Structures are given as structure tokens and as C-alpha cells.
């Protein structure tokens, strides 16, 4: 039962990545693209966590944490650049 729910969540995460990719490509302005990129990053972190569960490898969680920190810093830098305060 748990594996079925987690498999469904993998499908939903991949669907959210695809929808965010569409917004990233089609986004009318830069802010939409930054938000879409952030959503794809968060979904990827969730996907890495699910892969860590399925493979029973805890090292993937370290990768997810580092990826999350780098994404956070990147979004902050882009936001500062868009505000023209960088």
C-alpha cells in the first residue's frame, strides 16, 4: 500500500515538473520563469527523496539538502538582481 502511494506521488511530481517546464518556456516575464524554476527545483528535491526511499540509500538525502540550499541561494540572487539591488 505504501509503495503504491509513493509510486503515485512520483507520477504527480513528474507531472508537476512537466507543467513547470511549460511555464518556464512560455512564461511571459522573468519572474514567472524564476518561480517555475523554483517549483521544478522543489519537485526535484521531492523526487530525490523518493528515489532515496526506493533505493534504501540515505546518501541521496544529502544531495537533496545541498541541492535545496543551492537553489535557495540562486533564487535569492536572481530576486535581488530583478530588484536592481545587486
Automatic annotation (TrEMBL):
Membrane topology (UniProt): Multi-pass membrane protein
UniProt superkingdom: Bacteria
Family: Belongs to the CPA3 antiporters (TC 2.A.63) subunit F family.
Gene Ontology MF terms: sodium:proton antiporter activity
Record GO cellular component, one term: plasma membrane
Protein name in UniProt: Cation:proton antiporter
Main location: membrane
Keywords: Cell membrane, Membrane, Transmembrane, Transmembrane helix, Transport
InterPro entries: MrpF/PhaF-like
Record localization: Cell membrane
Transmembrane segments: 6-25, 34-54, 60-82
Amino acid at each position: 500500500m505504501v509503495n503504491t502511494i509513493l509510486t503515485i506521488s512520483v507520477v504527480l511530481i513528474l507531472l508537476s515538473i512537466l507543467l513547470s517546464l511549460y511555464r518556464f518556456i512560455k512564461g511571459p516575464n522573468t519572474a514567472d520563469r524564476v518561480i517555475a524554476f523554483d517549483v521544478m527545483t522543489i519537485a526535484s528535491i521531492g523526487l530525490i527523496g523518493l528515489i532515496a526511499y526506493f533505493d534504501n540509500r540515505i546518501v541521496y538525502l544529502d544531495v537533496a539538502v545541498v541541492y535545496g540550499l543551492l537553489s535557495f541561494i540562486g533564487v535569492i540572487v536572481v530576486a535581488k538582481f530583478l530588484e536592481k539591488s545587486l
